[in-house]
Design a protein that fits this description.
This protein has one domain. 69% of the residues lie in helices and 0% in strands. The protein has six helices and no strands. The chain is elongated, with a radius of gyration of 25 Å.
């Protein structure tokens, strides 16, 4: 009878070394704050859509001549248009600060879930948003990597919410810049109306993008909380 063939030695690979400073922490609080502020961005966008529509209507009416009533409407429309811009700026700045704090925490968690699943270093989670031209696609790459790393094991990765949010937001951003330049260069009521309608398109897209951004924040936060609360194997150590 032949003796059993020896099994070749197969060394057990060491556990992956986590990146320095990476530890599991719940993103729920920051996620809730980011979602609320994105809701304020949505409200500001809807108000801006109303102001854009009024500006476009007044510009159209000015083509037939100016009277006292129309002059008052024009002043009111200009005031609402300017107020909408201020509201959008304030809500955007506040949202960016909280959103980046949330994304940083989500990125740290994602490094624990999947240490080798990120195409960019940790600092790019924030720095990518401030790179000229590059900020049109680099932040999406960061968010996609965090999203993929946070999907529960065995679940199907669906990137549609991230891609839809990013696509609409970039189109809105580019259209808004074009509308602002067109508005500043406008010399006639017709040109003002064209700029206002383009801005209406931009603000409407931004409103939809804000809704999708809320979906991304809420869903990504839930995925990470699920992995924090019910992890495979040993329970995680919260920091």
């Amino acid at each position: 009878m032949a003796s059993p063939r020896p099994v070749p030695f197969q060394p057990v690979p060491p556990p992956p070394v986590l990146p320095l400073g990476a530890r599991l922490r719940s993103p729920a609080g920051l996620g809730l704050a980011a979602a609320i502020l994105l809701g304020l961005v949505l409200a500001a966008d809807l108000f801006a859509c109303f102001a854009d529509q009024m500006e476009a209507e007044v510009a159209h009416d000015l083509l037939g001549g100016v009277d006292a009533e129309l002059s008052r409407r024009a002043n009111r429309a200009d005031g609402l248009y300017g107020t909408a811009g201020i509201m959008q700026g304030v809500t955007m700045v506040a949202t960016v600060v909280v959103y980046l704090c949330w994304l940083w925490r989500a990125r740290l968690n994602a490094e624990v879930f999947e240490p080798y699943g990120h195409r960019m270093k940790r600092g790019w989670a924030i720095g990518s948003w401030f790179v000229p031209i590059g900020n049109l696609w680099l932040p999406r790459r960061v968010v996609l990597d965090v999203w993929t790393a946070s999907v529960p094991p065995g679940a199907r990765v669906r990137n549609t919410p991230v891609n839809a949010w990013w696509t609409l937001w970039i189109i809105s951003l580019l259209a808004g810049r074009a509308a602002a330049q067109q508005y500043d260069a406008a010399d006639t009521a017709a040109e003002v109306g064209d700029a206002a309608r383009l801005m209406l398109f931009s603000d409407a897209l931004d409103a939809v993008a804000a809704i999708l951004a809320i979906v991304v924040v809420v869903h990504l936060t839930r995925m990470q909380r699920r992995r924090l609360l019910v992890p495979p194997g040993a329970a995680p150590a919260f920091g």
